[in-house]
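Form 7-S
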Amino acid sequence: MPQVPLPPTAEQEGASDAASLLHELVAYLRQSRSELREQWALRITDARLLTVMTADEIFSEVTAVYDNYVDALETGSVETLQAYARDLSERIIPRGVETHEVLGIVLLLRDVLARALFVKYEHDGGLLTRILDAYEPAANRIAVTVGVSFVEERERVIREQQEAIRELSTPVLQVRDRLLILPIIGVVDPRRARQLTEQLLSAIQSNRARVVVIDITGVASIDLTVANHLVQTVEAARLMGASAIITGLSSEIAQTLVDLGVDLSMMRTVGDLQGGLEEAERLLGHRGDGGEPAAERSTM
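Output:
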């Protein structure tokens, strides 16, 4: 006997009804696109959001966001909207747009559309309730998607900026052939200590350096982890064929190193940068009396 299909469950009927209502909603939003888009742009201006952008730029972006928003409502997929949100974020974050502004404009759009639905379905309270029940979960998911995309892009930009700042704050300078200086200024945490080690070792290799002067005059304090990392940096430089000279060691840091029990036997220290450069010249086999440099001789 042929099987009799089971009647749809209440959950299936609910899902089908929600899909049908969203289809009707999407058709209305596309039909009313121009009017609703203009209302949204006006609300953004009145709320003083995206003030770094011109009116034409705002209108152009709200058009794209509106269309992506409606597409996401129709398909249930946020991938296209997510990609656009990342692209938008990449363009507006450098201009100073803040997270609350992006969340604000998305919530304003949700509000504009909800108010339009109230007007359209005010004659049928039951239908309005069903429409809103279908619309609100989708709208909330879209708002979260846009917000998360913006925050992730902002965090990526911040990480890149922090990385650039660290690189600028720990430059490896070539004084002359085979001689490098690494001036360290500011707070040295474990992450920055690892970074400056990587920079220094890379510079030693690319410049075939034989002596490096690490000047820590601008470092106020260091902890045990950073101190041991400094010792390891000196040892790594030695393994790559370069002698390391530490200059600018303050009495406070020197006492800290002693108190922490850091092994200083592998570290060559000189009081100040000038003395460090003179010691570097000696190690390289250059005269320190202003005469012509002597031939370089290996000290390894």
